Recover the amino acids of this structure.
């Protein structure tokens, strides 16, 4: 068990920590109960939360016991942001989002065996707490000077909008979570993102003052690209784990498009590949970057982790089929819809729309004469079949599931025509 910290450090999953030697000794002595909190401030987790769940999974595989906390209480407040007050969601919304997050977490941790995970909700102990008990039993252990010095709080105090007492109190509630889990389950380690360092240490300080015990905290670094820019935006926004908010196909493509400069580091962070496997993939980036073996491994592993192997197989085949390496007609309507979602498109009418019309309407060609020349030279394709007749008209046989028809100019320039099927 003591080797787990070295593994996490090699993977780039450790940023800050309290006494690392004491933590290493605790991990070596036997199973440590640890927790990470997830607030339902949105209906889905995203890639940043995925980092935390992967860290939790590594610790669990090393024999330690995870507590996954979904903040039904703290989610009604929200951790203060660097700028701007959060919009407070109603209780019904937060409860619904809590259930969604629990479902996502349950797919990523193992809930069986001696190191089986446990789901907890801080609404269970915060919901019934009276104001007097909160102030007397918890608030008395916090010092305003320390709370005001927190980076986020200090920045908000210097801004025009300031910070409300509601958001200012968040750090007390998170600290209280650690104390409660320490008392209920013997939890002695809290993990989280590096931006949570102040909240994590507040919990450790509370346990020291209220229970006279020393516990541990550890954070993961903010994940950035090799050029220093923020990591984790798709064309549609955040990298959500909910397939209804970001389709498995778009999710897969995001990872597939990882830059060569980032892919090895992301393989270490986001997959469970061994050092030997990652070394081999790193060599492939240097020797055969055009094959993109590392990117394909990253995309397949992360998509399987989040959405399952069946979804990964569907999107992998869709990705190949778009460029002729698999059968487009074998794709289901949903997968095909997701695969063509970002392509230029136009509407088409069976028996009336010509390929020339569609090439122009989708912007693959600038005019009819140019479209005819492309067809005559063998550079136009319908559903990956080369078009040989410059007067070819769209037929019902050209319709894929969902009424789509894939158009391609040359090897890589794609568009889609959509035909109503009802």
């Amino acid at each position: 068990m003591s080797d787990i910290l070295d593994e996490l450090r090699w993977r780039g999953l450790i940023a800050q920590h309290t006494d690392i030697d004491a933590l290493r000794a605790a991990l070596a002595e036997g199973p440590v109960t640890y927790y990470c909190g997830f607030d339902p401030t949105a209906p889905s987790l995203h890639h940043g939360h995925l980092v935390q769940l992967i860290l939790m999974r590594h610790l669990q595989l090393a024999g330690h016991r995870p507590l996954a906390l979904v903040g039904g209480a703290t989610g009604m407040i929200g951790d203060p942001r660097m700028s701007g007050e959060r919009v407070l969601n109603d209780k019904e919304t937060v409860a619904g989002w809590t259930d969604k997050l629990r479902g996502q977490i349950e797919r990523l941790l193992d809930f069986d065996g001696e190191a089986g995970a446990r789901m907890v909700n801080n609404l269970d102990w915060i919901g019934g707490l009276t104001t007097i008990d909160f102030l007397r039993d918890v608030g008395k252990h916090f010092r305003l000077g320390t709370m005001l010095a927190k980076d986020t709080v200090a920045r908000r105090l210097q801004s025009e909008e300031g910070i409300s007492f509601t958001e200012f109190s968040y750090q007390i509630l998170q600290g209280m979570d650690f104390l409660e889990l320490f008392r209920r389950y013997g939890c002695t380690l809290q993990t989280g993102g590096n931006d949570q360092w102040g909240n994590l240490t507040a919990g450790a300080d509370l346990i020291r003052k209220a229970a006279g015990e020393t516990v541990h905290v550890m954070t993961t670094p903010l994940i950035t690209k090799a050029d220093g820019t923020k990591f984790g935006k798709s064309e549609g926004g955040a990298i959500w784990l909910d397939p209804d908010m970001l389709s498995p196909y778009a999710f897969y493509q995001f990872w597939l498009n990882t830059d060569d400069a980032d892919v090895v580091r992301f393989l270490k962070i986001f997959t469970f590949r061994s050092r030997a496997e990652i070394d081999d993939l790193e060599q492939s980036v240097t020797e055969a970057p055009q094959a993109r073996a590392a990117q394909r491994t990253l995309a397949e592993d992360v998509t399987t982790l989040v959405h399952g192997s069946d979804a990964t197989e569907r999107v992998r085949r869709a990705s190949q089929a778009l460029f002729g390496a698999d059968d487009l007609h074998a794709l289901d309507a949903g997968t095909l819809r997701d695969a063509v979602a970002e392509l230029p498109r136009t509407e088409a009418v069976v028996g009336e729309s010509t390929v020339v019309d569609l090439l122009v309407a989708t912007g693959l060609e600038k005019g009819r004469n140019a479209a005819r020349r492309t067809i005559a030279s063998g550079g136009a394709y319908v559903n990956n079949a080369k078009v040989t007749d410059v007067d070819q008209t769209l037929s019902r046989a050209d319709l894929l599931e969902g009424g789509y028809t894939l158009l391609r100019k040359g090897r890589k320039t794609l568009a889609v025509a959509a035909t109503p099927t009802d």
DSSP finds 19 helices and twelve strands in the chain. The domain at 345-418 is CATH 3.10.290.10 (Structural Genomics Hypothetical 15.5 Kd Protein In mrcA-pckA Intergenic Region; Chain A).
